[in-house]
Specification:
By secondary structure, the chain is an alpha/beta fold. The protein has a single domain, classed as TIM Barrel. The strands form 2 sheets. It has an 8-stranded parallel beta barrel with strand order 1-2-3-4-7-8-9-13, surrounded by 8 helices. The chain has a two-stranded antiparallel ribbon with strand order 5-6. It is globular and about 65 Å long.
Length: about 350
């Protein structure tokens, strides 16, 4: 019966205005980001996802700056095990926990593209990356459980008497989100994570895919987009305008990227989009932007009431958290928080009342 938790993906500037344009951050507007995260905090969002990728500024220094400009909102740091050894990574995360009052969570991503991994000198293939992630998380947990010194000899890491002077604040650890659609990803999420994070699907599809994770007592979160307006007619008009004059070269580039990608999550999202009827997987699940923006672009689109009711359907399927984006992302964040979230809270209150009645009966 816990209320749904809502997060947002923080842009590196003003964010995209259209679903059919490329997302390449060739400049950084820190003042604009500060203004964005402060509004997100005022709107009551739980967390802000700080994504990672060659096309983005690195999220670590940004979080270091943004935690000092906010007081309540948490930052979800997306990071890959191959970029930093576990001792140093634990040291960095522990430092941010003290800077922020523990307002940092982790989205550990094994990686989605051999080509991009190679940009950073990382040549491990899919299954090897997940084995490394498992080993990485095992070491991190030892640090956060207060073990010291740590000696480890594994397939990917070797540590000799490793120590850290600064623990995670209050002897705690960050909340862990584990991404990926493969069986290995789910097993890592069950072994080490608090929440398995995946791209969108219908509630029925999510329920079926999440059974292993839910049965193991872990939570499920969805990363997707949202487009909510007062009426469905406004939503359809917005989609039509947003998809006008699309960047077809960018679409071809994305298709080529996916062709070489080894991520089951990415490939599943594209298979769903390709199987949609006139770009709709359901009356409220639009897939038309996936070809231009990838897996996160599967979009919950409808009136405020339709979106709120759909979120409750996902909740019944076992989903407890959502990380949303929008086009343009700031305006959509504002509309979602002001118009959709209050409807969700009313539906959840009624859900609680019905549960109490059932218990009495």
């Amino acid at each position: 019966m816990r209320p749904l938790r809502f997060h947002w993906c923080a842009p590196r500037g003003d964010g995209n205005t259209k679903a059919s344009e490329k997302d390449l951050a060739n400049e950084l507007n820190l003042d604009g980001m500060i203004d964005f995260v402060q509004e997100a905090e005022d709107l009551g969002l739980d967390s802000l996802l700080m994504g990672i990728g060659f096309h983005l500024p690195d999220p670590l220094p940004l979080i270091g700056a943004l935690v000092r400009e906010t007081r309540k909102v948490t930052f979800i740091l997306a990071y890959r095990p191959g970029l930093m050894p576990p001792t140093l990574f634990a040291q960095v995360v522990n430092t941010i926990s003290w800077m922020s009052g523990k307002r940092i969570s982790l989205n550990i991503v094994a990686g989605i593209s051999p080509e991009e991994q190679a940009y950073y000198g990382d040549y491990l293939q899919h299954d090897d990356r997940y084995r490394r992630t498992d080993e990485y998380l095992a070491i991190l947990q030892r640090f956060w459980h207060g073990e010291s010194p740590i000696t480890h000899e594994g397939e990917h890491y070797r540590l000799s008497g490793a120590k850290l002077g600064l623990p995670y604040k209050d002897g705690d650890r960050p909340r862990l989100y584990l991404s990926g659609a493969s069986q290995q990803a789910q097993e890592n999420a069950v072994r080490w994570g608090d929440c398995w994070l995946r791209y969108g699907d219908t509630p029925e599809g999510i329920a079926a895919a999440s059974r292993f994770v839910l049965d193991a007592g872990r939570e499920v979160g969805i990363r997707m987009h949202v487009l909510a307006r007062e009426t469905r007619a406004e939503v359809l008009a917005e989609i039509k305008a947003m998809m006008a004059n699309p960047d077809e070269q960018h679409r071809r580039n994305v298709r080529e990227f996916v062709r070489h990608c080894d991520s089951e999550a990415v490939k599943t999202s594209f298979r769903l989009a390709e199987g949609a009827v006139d770009e709709w997987l359901s009356p409220v699940l639009w897939s038309g932007a996936v070809a231009y923006r990838g897996g996160p672009a599967l979009c919950l689109a409808g009136s405020y009431e339709e979106v709120a009711k759909s979120l409750m359907q996902y909740k019944k399927a076992g989903v407890t958290e959502f990380i949303f984006s929008g086009w343009p992302t700031r305006g959509e964040m504002r509309r979602f928080c002001q118009h959709v979230v209050p409807l969700v809270r009313k539906l959840e209150a009624n859900e609680g009342e019905h549960e109490e009645i059932a218990l009495v009966i």
